[in-house]
Amino acid sequence: MTGDDPETLRGYREKLVQRKREWAREGRLLTENQDVDRSTNRLPPGQRLVEKWPVLDLGVQPDIPRDKWIFTVDGLVANPIRWKWDDFMSQPQVSLTSDIHCVTGWSRYDNAWTGVHIAHLLELSSPDPAARHCLIYCSDGYTTNVRLDRLADEDVLLAHSWEGAHLTKEHGGPVRIVIPKWYFWKSAKWIRRIEFMADDEKGFWEDRGYHNDGDPWKEERYD
Ligand SMILES: Nc1nc2c(c(=O)[nH]1)N[C@H]1C(S)=C(S)[C@@H](COP(=O)(O)O)O[C@H]1N2
Ligand SMILES: [Mo]
Question: Which atom from ligand 1 is nearest to the alpha carbon of 56?
Answer without folding.
Answer: 19
